[in-house]
Design goal:
Blueprint (H helix, E strand, L loop, with lengths): L2 E5 L2 E6 L4 E7 L5 E6 L2 H17 L10 H15 L4 H17 L12 H8 L6 E4 L6 E3 L2 H20 L33 H13 L5 H10 L3 H5 L6 E2 L4 E2 L3 E5 L5 E5 L5
Antiparallel strand pairs: 1-2, 2-3, 3-4, 5-6, 7-8, 9-10
Helix pairs in contact: 2-3, 2-5, 3-5, 6-7
Amino acid sequence: MPNVGTYRGITIYYQEDRDRYRMWYTDNKGQKKPVYGKTKKQVEENYDQVQEELRKGLYLAKMPDTLLKLMYQFLKDQEEDGELKDNSLNRKYDSAAIIEKYIKCSKKPIKNITADDLNDDLKKLPKMKKFIQSKDREEYRFSQSYLNQIYSLIREVFHYAVIKEKIIKEKDPFEIEGKVKKPKSKKDTKVVKPFTREECIKFLEVLNKSEHKYADILKVQLFSGLRIGETLDLTSENIDLEQNKIYVETTVTKNRFNKTVSRKNHKDP
């Protein structure tokens, strides 16, 4: 992480994987925390603002332990601990954005949120329309897997609040099975069917006759079953022609800032 200078005696770094500049400060509880910015100047301005709020004693006072605040704190902890792969973390941040927008009780102090509050907000999600994909296609509703992710993240945040002693265990509505109801999607579930042997043969015949620029990539996937990210990150060093083996060591993915990165793959070769 390159050092790009100092400000008020504190070093500023450029963090390539986040495409952000960063510096550290100590809050009024003695904990070290980062300040980020798209530019070095923005980091300096954000740092000055935080320091002014700390001097006035407002920084913590204006941030109650809402579900929303604890949710982003929980995700930040998971990101810093490296507990999740980028794509999993991205999905959680996507879910967090939906919760922030549509779950009204997420703005309330978590200790005041009841199962009824959560159920009232969650049951509205299946009726909502996420976005319009194009003028010629109907509005897209939340899939069941998406609703499951939203439900699971809220449940994780309540468990996190218990661990952080923000609420007692008895105040966690998810402690009683079924008290907070998982929303049911109104979107039809698509049945995914794999190619039959005959379809694979026909597909291969088309690829062999084609000059399509992705023909080789599709052939590798067809014969190996690799995911697209794993296929795109292969190099000549991953191929052992003598033993007819492909060593899948990395995969192409996107981090939460939508930047394409290469990450270690934990699969066995």
